[in-house]
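Hi everyone, sorry if this is the wrong subforum. Our group has a chain we'd like a structural model of before ordering constructs, and none of us has done structure prediction before. Sequence below.
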Amino acid sequence: MSESTVNIEKLIGVEVSNSALKAVCINRNGVLTDVYQVATDKNQETFAQLVNFINQLKSKFGGFDKIGIAVPGLVHAQTKRVAFSTFIPEHEQIDFLTELETATGLKITIENDANAAAYGEFLQGAGRDSKSMFYATLGTGIGGALILNGKIWRGASGFAGEFGHIAINSDGVKLEDVASTANIVRRTRSRFHQDQTSSLSKLTEEEIRLSNVVRAAQKEDDFAQMMLERTGTYIGTALAGVINLLNIEKIVVGGEILQAGHLVLDAIIQRARELAFAPSFEATEIVEGELGENAAAVGVALLLVEP
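Answer:
Right subforum, don't worry. Here is the predicted structure as tokens:
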């Protein structure tokens, strides 16, 4: 992002999740200068906590008159209302944008978190220098976003990119049903008793987390590696459809599951190669995201000065 693109002193972006509120501050040259995060209180409404958080940012980051907010949910392209949110359903019940602008006195841009993360990776991460890009975020939920000619493709209503809802078999099992963080853990818990040689067998079912599976796999635990590689296979199956349909230039994969690094990414690439139309696959580069957990907040901040 060149200085001429930015006509304000700083860009502020916030990512809202069901567990935390994260803010980034980007200076006029596009450099990330500060990050601030707080955990959310599940006993209080997220909206009220967000208003308080933004007021804290006014002191922490200094004066600003506009802010970008990335939310986990479908944002209607015309009304800018949150039409659906699995993890924070309260956002569906209010005119989120209007009420937030009224409560904070700021001009606000609202965007789906996957779209925001994709835009951040496109401009300042692994997708830079590409013209078309598909982004897949793999974590608590599975999301996706499409960038065409430098613009987010939102679809007719703003709901494009729902990658997690792609069916990966003839029974209609969706990608999110098997490849989200919770479902990786569920699949691991349902099978780990079958392999007493795995270090995971020393844990109770309740103790198993994704981090346990990743650590075990990194220590050459065959069972843990199999579970992560199988996850990559599911994701690669869905991405092959993206490649076949769009002949996309670059696919960027981000999110919590990428803690496993090459164990998942290699399986994704291998499966996509097996199922995708060969000429299209050869024209597509599949890479890990570079912005990590800051991607959505950075992206929605950059959307404040979208050309």
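For your construct planning: The chain is about 35% helix and 20% strand. The chain has two domains: 3-119+294-305, 129-289.
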